[in-house]
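Internal QA ticket QA-208
Title: Verify multi-chain structure generation after dependency bump
Assignee: T.L.

Test input:
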Amino acid sequence: MEILKVGTGIGVTPDLRRRRALWQILLFAAGLLVLTVISAGSVYLVNKARDDNASVIHTIEVENQVHALLLEIRRAESSASGFLLTRVPEIWTDHQAAVAAIVPHLDRLAELTRDNPVQAENVNKLRPAIEARRDQFAREMNFIQQGDFASATVLVREAATGNTTGAIRDAADAMLREEQRLFALRSANANNSQTLAASLTGVGSGLVVVLALLSIWLVRRSAAIRDEAEARLRDANLNLEATVDERTADLREANNEIQRFAYIVSHDLRSPLVNIMGFTSELEELGSDIFRRIGSLTHVPADGPSLATNEPAGIALEGPDKQLSQDFSEALGFIKSSIGKMDRLISAILNLTREGRREFEPVRIDTGELIEAIVTTVAHQAAEAEAVIRVGELPDIVSDRLALEQIFSNLIDNAIKYLKTGVPGEIVLRGRTKLGYAIFEISDNGRGIDPKDHQRIFDLFRRAGLQDKPGQGIGLAHVRALVRRLGGTMSVSSELNVGSTFTITLPIKWNVSKRNAEQ
Amino acid sequence: MTQPVTIIMIEDDEGHARLIERNIRRSGVNNPILPFRNGTDATHYLFGADGSGLVQKGNALLILLDLNLPDMTGIEILRRIKENKHLKASPVVVLTTTDDSQEIKRCYELGCNVYITKPVNYENFANAIRQLGLFFSVIQVPSAAT
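Actual output:
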């Protein structure tokens, strides 16, 4: 109970842990998302700002173009007037260059404003006016070429005051106004884009910082929880060790108690048994005395009753007396055989408790030699049972010698004892090692054990199969207890009428401290 | 001059006491047998009211002792007998059901003279007691020397 409490008290429930992991993943995802949005937004806004700037530049270019066009017209006008005043031929050349430049400038302007319907309309208005003005320039030129300067002067004056110039100015002004408007709009747009980009970056950075702070807080919190859990785990471990020690002490105490109990029980049971057996024997003697007397009384002739009891013992009883005597002996026989059996059981318990109390001492054992010694001691029984014992290669181990002797002699003894009658026995011992354990197998071709009895044969005072051999049902229980105390395991595989194989697994290097600490 | 040896039998089990007595008699020993059923009565008799053992000074005793008594352990009685200067020369025969080697060793260490295990097999039991009877007839129990 205590352990369970400590266990659930430690740190974090799986649910909480899962929730925290989810939170961290969410935070990370949010951070990533914010970064992505900022990047995409920035790219978009930067592009937009570039476009906006390009538009602004475009507007300025259009304005420039309008000014350049007007400048060329003015140049043409002023150079025409200048020439008429001064008659300097360079000014005339200048006039011709200016007139020639007007149309390319106009075309360029039309090209620039093609995307804007309002400006295109304005250009369309501008074009006839400029055509008309060019026509005037051409006529002026004609007059000048013909030397009619007076007509040219009149024409110049007319043109300067005429509505063509006004139309050009109006159209150009309209274009400039439109461009001014566009300029203001586009500048605002560009500003907006840049402000938006700046604020997006600012907000995004802020968000990332917030997320980072949140993450740091979460990490710190979970670290704090983990520290706390670790501290609690340490405490729990200490508690656990204390609890384990306590329990081990309890178990040891309980074990000792059982040993003492078994010892006392077997010892105290024996005491009345001595009486029962003793007085039964006394009774037996008494009985034979009584029946001898009855015999002598019935046999004595009526004339001379001799009460001498020391008659030779051969007086035969007759009829009912004989029957009585037999019944009496039979009853006593049963009592005595039962007492004998009980005594053997008590002795067995006593021996087992003594074995349980004996301290094991690990020594290096030449297993092959040990088995050879056992085989020698059972050679007589083996020969009687027509059995051969074959011993294979056996690994040496470090263990308790006496315990090992008891284990193997019990098993070999059993193998010889339970061979099939009339069939030459064959008992084989094999050994191998695996992962620090030595595995021994004792196989026979004997009568075998029914699978349903495989567990039962290891129980104390239980036996299986044909009960034609003497035994208390202790051997295998004892062997298994010994194997367990030596830190090993034991199993049987067997088939009825085919044979049995007992497998014993023992640690190659048995550590005494593991076991004797408990003693 | 020899003084008849008194056999002190400290045995809680009446049946055992009877069987022991019967077999001692069968072996031909006729010394007086004084049975005690528990440790308290026995120690009271052996050591007297003051517990000094002075009351037994000069008496020739042979003590048959069972180790499992209801009120105290036979080992304790054995220890006291062997520590008492008036009683330590008296032979003590431990007769008990235990054949635990540790216990046997302990008894001999404390100065027990003979240790006999009561076998359930009556033949053996009777034999053991009869041999004890023979043993009684040959041992020299120190008699009252001061």
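Spot checks passed. Residues 1-11, 305-313, 514-519 of chain A have pLDDT under 50 and may be disordered.
Status: verified.
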